[in-house]
Amino acid sequence: MSPLSAPPPGRTDSDASYRELVEHANSIILRWSVDGRVLLLNECGQRFFGYTAEEIVGRHVVGTIVPTTDTGGRDLQLYIEEICASPEAFGQSINENMRRSGERVWVSWTNRVVRDGQGRVIELLSIGSDITERQRSEEALRQSEARYRALFERVPVGIVCADANSYYLDANDCVCQMLGYTRDELIGLHASDIIVPSEVPHIQSTLDQIHDRVDHRREWLFRRKNGSVFAADVTATAMPDGTLLGIIRDITALREREQEVTRMSRLYDALSHVNQAIVRLRTRDELLQKVCDVLVDHGGFRMAWVGWHVPEDHRLMPVAQCGDSNRYLDGIRVYTDDRPEGRGPSGHTFRSGSPYVSNDLLGDPVSGPWRAELERRGFLASAAFPIRVGGVVEGVLSVYADRLGFFQDQEVRLLEEAAADVSFALDNVASEAARRHAEQTVRQEKEFSDSMIECMPGIVYLYDMSGRFLRWNRDFERVSGFAATEIAHMHPLDFFAGDDKVRIEARISEVFATGESSTEASFVSRDGRQRPYYFTGRRVTFQGRTCLVGVGIDISERRQAEEERERRHRAEAADRVKSAFLATMSHELRTPLNSIIGFTGILLQGLAGPLNTEQNKQLEMVRTSSRHLLALINDVLDISKIEAGQLEVARAPFNPGQSIAKVVALVTPLAVAKGLAVRVEVPAVLPIVVGDARRFEQILLNLLSNAIKFTEMGEVRLTAKLLDAAGLDAGRPAATSIQLSVRDSGIGIKTVDLPHLFQPFRQVESGLARHHEGTGLGLAICHRLAVLMGGRIDAESEWGKGSRFWVTLPLEGPVRS
User: 126 and 32 in contact (C-beta within 8 Å)?
Assistant: First the structure.
């Protein structure tokens, strides 16, 4: 009897053989009623689903072997009625079923209906086989294919697949967007359809290379659907099945960046040459001509010229030019008023005092009077910048380029800077000319009265209300120590200091207000010596100007006691001048150093072209030396700001534990490079400190760096602890300060040198200065920063055995008004 049919009703003689056949079948055999309940499940099915016959017979198939969520939303009874009405639809099916354990499995079923003698459906018979592993494999394959397709579509580079003859079989969205084709349009095209004609001859040699299992990479010029052309980097390889895989990267942006780097490098070079010319050249015409030469020869501009204002005819007359090989300037007129020839970039700049940039010169309406000449010479962009003398616009620097959109923000900024530098230099030229004229006048007037004033006792002087010296005798030069040409540029108050300067200034005002006055004050000579003098002054009119004529008599014997006090004031003033000078020079030096570091970085990154090994090595040395010099300058700037009282420390909450970890991470590579161990003993949790986190880290970094620098073997140990008001170890509630200690096993410091540790520009005389570089500013800065933050720094050392430095800072920081 076939397992697909049940024994007819009433025929019990075959029941035993039927049941035996069913029970021992290797397939799952399930008989179920038209109301969905299990009538029979053979041994194979019982083992598969995990039920005994007693457990499953009579149970509804839904919720037993069919998951309740997998009925498709249909009522099972309606489903069975549909089967009974159309049994031909109830044949093969693949279903996800459920074991007793809840595990989902896949079964392939062959289904039949069983009828009685009248043809009525009385039960259903299903024979199944386990296809779970096959189904899972197929699902894994589908997921893998889906992932591959998603990767293929979403990767941010173009990917194409082609046959062995370079006809395209597939392409992702990125390459479609790159070329302007849809995927369907691209499939079937040949490589020659999307590259420029000049590239077509290279296709076959490239295919031969790839078929020989050699990966291919080169730049190709592609042609988009709209006809535009772009450059792309292509990597192609042969797949195991013989198809070709190509990866396409649009390098248009990269080429633009390379061009921008080249253009900016040329502009920076030009600006450097302009600054050199400013320092070297002394006349207006020489300087302006050099600027034009530099902008064309080094800056990459087609032409540059400077027009100088001629007030009589309101015209900008060319006084310097470079690049005008076609004599463009000879055939044009540029004015400064509102006529059409005065509304161009140069005229607009002269009147407004602001730069005028035209990145589409031929399309700019203001270029009308000169458009034909500009087009004939290929000038496509232009910019004009004002040149001032004494704050007044006197000329215009105009530059031209042969590329649309040439003048972007950086280019304009650099050219503005160049024009400003030229204006500054011209101010100096004018000032120098005025100074020479004034000196000549002074010499002439001085010769007139020298013979009269030389015979008077003491020092004699004559100056106007602005303090400009007009006359003086030789005794004035002898006592002051200054030459006549120097005194001509000095002010009367330059010879006094401290309270004397204030008193003299008041007496000078009194002379010009009332007619005369007298006082005692110390006269300061060039060598810094101060001599007490009795001065008298009287108001006079000389050459139409109100002046003061005076005599000074030496009264040194009466003022020797005051001289020492005045010398101290001069020393303090000199120290402030030194600090201000160092701060100013540090700022001036940092600007070119930052430029050197920046340009070296550009070269090392390869943005300006590849470097060979030796060039790379030399540039690394340049950058390392520049950074070292910048660090030294920053030290000088810090100590100068501190001494000048210009350095303020912040007062804000910060986490000292995070700052310590940050600094330790910075110095650890230095220690590892020397084979030193860094030991850190810091509580797991430290209280929040109110102070300046950056200065806190600066102090700690300097102490750790010094310890590593002066230690050749052994270790560097950092510890942190909390102290109470008495300076003893404390827990968090009682703590008022934090103490950081850095101990090393280095060379140590001699006892006689310890008092000099925290003095600026001083390295201890222990041989360290001969083996270790530095300015001697680090510890001085640490000491003064600690004081500014309300704390202190101390040190102890034993020569040859190492040193210990510790800094103590309040948790709340100093309170400043």
Answer: yes
Distances (CA, A) of 231 to 254, 323, 407: 10, 32, 24
- What number of CA atoms fall less than 13 Å from residue 174's CA on the CB side? 17
Alpha carbon distance 90, 123 (integer Å): 13
- Decide if 139 contacts 131 (C-beta within 8 A): no
Nearest Cα neighbor of 296 from 331, 336, 269 is 269
Could you give the C-alpha distances from 73 to 67, 76, 78, in angstroms and in order? 12, 9, 11
Count CB-CB contacts under 10 A for residue 720: 18
Confirm if 349 and 330 have CB atoms less than 8 A apart. Answer: no
Q: How far apart are CA 231 and CA 253, in angstroms?
A: 10
pLDDT tens per residue across span 421-473: 888 888 887 777 777 777 777 677 666 666 767 777 789 999 999 999 998 99
**Tell me, what's the pLDDT at 740?**
93
Taking each helix axis from N to C terminus, what angle separates 252-280 and 284-297, rounded to the nearest 10 degrees?
Answer: 160
Distance CA 377, CA 305 (A): 15
- pLDDT greater at residue 762 or residue 361: 361
Cβ(760)–Cβ(773) below 8 Å: no
CA 233 to CA 243: how far, in whole Å?
Answer: 20
Half-sphere exposure in the Cβ direction for 380 (13 Å, CA): 7
Q: Are 778 and 702 in contact (CB under 8 A)?
A: yes
Q: What are the structure tokens assigned to 177, written together?
A: 């967007």
Half-sphere exposure of 251 (CA within 13 A, CB side): 15
Residue with tokens 């779970």: 132
| H-helix or E-strand spanning residue 574 | helix 560-604
For residues 282, 287, 289 and 291, what is the CA-based torsion angle, rounded to 10 degrees?
A: 150
Measure CA 675 to chain center: 33
Cα–Cα distance, 197 to 203 (Å, whole number): 11
Look up the pTM and report it: 0.35
Residues 379 and 303 sit within 8 Å (Cβ to Cβ): yes
- Alpha-carbon gap, residue 576 to 436, rounded angstroms: 32
Residues 6+ apart with CB under 8 A from 41: 28, 29, 30, 31, 49, 51, 53, 56, 57
Are 534 and 520 within 8 A, CB to CB?
yes
- For residues 291 and 285, what is the distance between their CA atoms, to the nearest angstrom? 10
User: Both tokens of residue 582?
Assistant: 């160092």
CA distances from 292 to 316, 324, 375 (A): 16, 11, 22
DSSP string, 661-713: HHHHHHHHHHHHHTT-EEEEE--SS---EEE-HHHHHHHHHHHHHHHHHT-SS
Contacts of 325 (CB under 8 A, 6+ apart): none
Q: How many residues does the chain have?
A: 817
Q: What is the mean pLDDT of residues 233-259?
A: 83
Q: How far is CA 446 from the centre of its chain?
A: 60
Q: 473-508, pLDDT tens digit by residue? A: 989 999 999 999 999 999 999 999 999 999 999 999
Please list, in sequence order, all residues whose beta carbon lies within 8 angstroms of the beta carbon of residue 486, skipping any fewer than 6 positions away.
none
Determine whether 46 is exposed, middle or buried from the number of CB atoms within 10 Å of its CB (0-12, 13-18, 19+).
Answer: middle
Distances (CA, A) of 379 to 88, 278, 397, 399: 86, 28, 16, 10
**CA–CA gap between residue 334 and residue 317 (Å, rounded):** 8
CB distance 542 to 552 below 8 Å: no
3-state SS assignment for residue 501 = helix
> Residue 587 and residue 813: Cα distance in Å, rounded?
29
What is residue 77's predicted lDDT score, i.e. its pLDDT? Answer: 64
pLDDT at 25 over 50: yes
Q: Could you tell me which of 751, 748, 747, 729 has the C-alpha nearest to residue 738? A: 729
Structure tokens of 291?
Answer: 């600027």
666: CB partners within 8 A, 6+ apart: 701
CB 593 within 8 A of CB 630: yes
Quote the percentage of the chain above a pLDDT of 70: 82
